[in-house]
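Page 47, continued from p. 46.
Same chain as before, 491 aa.
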Amino acid sequence: MSTEIQQGSAKAWGGRFASTPDKRLEAFNASVDFDVRFIREDLRGSVAHVRMLGRQGIIPVEDARTIEDGLWKVWDEVTAGEFALTIADEDVHTGAERRLRELIGPVTGKLHTGRSRNDQVATDFRLWTKDALLRLISGTLDLIDALLTVAGNNPDAIMPGYTHLQRAQPVLLAHHLLAYVEMFGRDVDRLKAALRRTDVLVLGSAAMAGATYPLDRESVARDLGFATISRNSMDGVSDRDFVLDALAAGAILMMHISRLSEEIIFWSSGEAKYLTLSDAFSTGSSIMPQKKNADVAELARGKTGRVYGNLMSLLTIMKGTPLTYNKDFQEDKEGLFDTVDTCLIVLDVVPPMLTTATFNTDRMAAAAVGDFILATDVADHLAKRGVPFREAHEVVGKLVGECSSRGIAFTDLTDEEWAEAHPLFAEQKPPLTALESVSARDVPGGTAPNRVRAARAAALEAAAEERAWLKGAQTRLANVMSRNSTGPGAG
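Result:
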């Protein structure tokens, strides 16, 4: 896009001013270098608006048709890569109108009847954000699918679960992965909630007090695929909660990805060696030939910080803005663009990193019985036979201490030593395998194999339902944003 400044160009607000803006103000004030990203949304919103103006008799029907035809010509130029903005255009809305005037002449001036850039930009941004949220939902579902695939490929693998980054209790690998499926499922819910609050038409709010023309806002909402219209014109032009919703949902999504990334980094380390990443999703060192680095996971973890920053930036911008529109709001777009771009690139690379990794199940199984990880099972063995759990906890704690001092494991104890620890152990020794441990946790949400299989099946069904919903939502939005979209009452 050219950045050449056109001196003496007319501004939409220029009637009040006797001279043209200083070139430094033009450069400082312009947003064309980033809001061009929703040029299609701007053109489509204008199409819906001018159709309504014609239907309502606010402007002549023939003028409305001429303007709509011109808008589609600009659309075609955008599609062909022939549309360009300059800093003199100030923003995408002014640039689109400037090009329209070049194509169809002075009748272009009727397009802005009953509309302000304030409600225009909010409409454009909401349309763009709806699409962005659907793309984020799709990427999150891809990640869920990858986790379910890996869980399905390793149904019997047992690993140590951790608390305080110390081995705690054995769990199935699939159970561990399904914990992240739960997290990302909540992210889908959050993104859908953000979409619901974004799906509101504010066009018709005008500058801030509403319009003096008989606008049919409901028909414009139907034309643009919005679920409802805003109820207060002042809130309509000044609300950026929908952007904050998207930023917050993106930040929490990235937090979950960062947690998963930390697991991948640890599991692939020489200390754990629970998994080996594919060469296709690893990097090396420029000086240490032996290195194989989990850079995908590290970058995903690192990029979480910039997404947090985007959320904090807009929260800080919004906290001091009175009703209604303020120029501060120009700073609302780049942060969301960056968050969406960042989340999408991470969601594109993490799923294949997971599905191409190899889990070292023997190593995991060995770790799942080390460091007295079955101590809770031993205490439960006593508690199930009438020993108060606190007493059982103390008995097993002393036994762990004794074994540690001798450098032996539970499996090294003799029958006599078990009986000496507690008489009930003489009758029956506790479970001493990881499989016994996980199988015993046969409760809803537990790590028993049958529970995990059922949980994975339910997650697959839920993911399929979300996919079906997503396909419908994407189709509806694609129809709205189509070159052939006619809208209500068009003709």
